[in-house]
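S2.1 Query sequence (Cupin domain-containing protein)
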Amino acid sequence: MTRDVRNVHDALAAFSEPWQPHRLTSVNDYDVKVVKLLGEFVWHSHPETDELFLVVSGQLTIQLRGRDVVLNSNDVFVVPRGVEHCPRAESEVQAILIEPRGTMNTGDAGGERTAEVQELG
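Output structure tokens follow.
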């Protein structure tokens, strides 16, 4: 956790790979992560927690069983705990995620796209 001022745009400029969350800071037991998204992720859920998406730039579609939620820059959406979802970005999206420390990006699905949260330099 950092106690210094962090700039979201500088943090997002520090890496290029999609689907690799980076911890910007922490608040109590929650991580505030920056991430770049491109293409389609995996269908998964987080049985124990909600997941907040805040789009910084681009357009993100969060596919839910039965409907799609489209987020544009500055939009926020919370995927409720246990709800299966699959984020999709036709072009690069920059986003902030807020979720409890230790939450895996692939939730209950696991697999090769599971990524440890990386610390920003």
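Residues 8-13 form the longest helix (6 residues). The chain has one domain: 8-119.
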